[in-house]
Each structure stands twice: as structure tokens, then as C-alpha cells.
TrEMBL record:
InterPro entries: Nuclease_put_TT1808, Restrct_endonuc-II-like, Uma2. Gene3D superfamilies: tt1808, chain A. This is Putative restriction endonuclease domain-containing protein. It holds the Pfam family Uma2. Residues 16-172 form the Putative restriction endonuclease domain. PANTHER family: SLL0198 PROTEIN-RELATED, SLL1222 PROTEIN.
Amino acid sequence: MSDCARRATYQDVLDTPPNQVAEVLNGVLHATPRPSVSSRNVTSVLAGELYLPFRRGIKGPGRWALLVEPELHLGTDPDIVIPDIAAWRRDRMPQIPMRNAAIFLAPDWVCEVISPSTEALDRRDKMEIYARELVAHYWLIDPRLRLLEVYRIDGGRFARVGTWEGDVTVRAAPFDAVEIELGVLWQE
């Protein structure tokens, strides 16, 4: 952003039409179309797969707070980021803050379901912000390619630790205590 450019504010986010997702990344307002039904399906199914074992502890370890599309305010001059799904270990977030619209604590895991309109932001700007905030795990899911990419923070940068495609069953950190059938994400 140039010195003469105005830094986007939270008011810019609030003024964005409701059919768009508004985020402030590195001081720039980005308004993208709401996720497609296909992307929302992937998000919903994955959140459902993780909810019982990791939030509730049914047939899994529990001890996680999972949220779909939380509003995150990260950094000192905050970036306003809306990941598709985010999760915090309960030892870092014992209670989900219910009084605020935003969460100011960086998650331990973020998942973005990429689309043509968001892929560049998810792979560049958001990935850099999550790395800066030391989010330990970052997943990218591409429903068009039926692809899961898993990254882990390493020395302040994300290193890819695995890529899976199609209908395979995976165990991927930090949720490797259970198997996830990728095929269920692509079902209509």
C-alpha cells in the first residue's frame, strides 16, 4: 500500500454489501463473493466431521473450540480475516468469547476452502498473516480439484506436510487422532 493510500477500516467492512465477504488484509479492503454452495458444503461437512471428536470429545480427544467463519482481528493494526473454519485448543481458549463480534486470539488451526475468487488471497495474503500470527496448522481445500493441502508452521513460515486428492482417507495434523474420508467432502 502506498503512503498516500488510505488504510481500510472496520467501517469499510461494515459498509460492504451483505452478499460479499469483506476482509482487511495488510490494510487493503478485499470484498469477495459469498462462498458458492459447493464451497459451503465442503465447509459444513468438514466442520461436522471435526465437531463430535474434537469439540465434543465423542470418539475423539475433544479439547478444541471450532468455529465456522469467525471474524478474526489479528495483529496490532489489525488485519480483519474471515477464515472458512478456525479452531483453538481449549488450553488457549477455554471459553468462546460470546460478547464480541470479533476474536482477537489467533487460532491454532485454520482451513480455507479456495475458489477462483479467493485462491490468490488464501495462498498469499492470508497465509502470510496466519504465519505472522504463528497459526500452527493451515489447511487449503480445493473442491474443484478435490484436493487437501496441509501446512504446518516452521520457523515463522508454512511448510507443506501433505497433499491428498480424491476420495482417500487421511489422518492430518492437528486432527490426526481420527480418519477423515475426503470423499464425503465432495458429495452433493
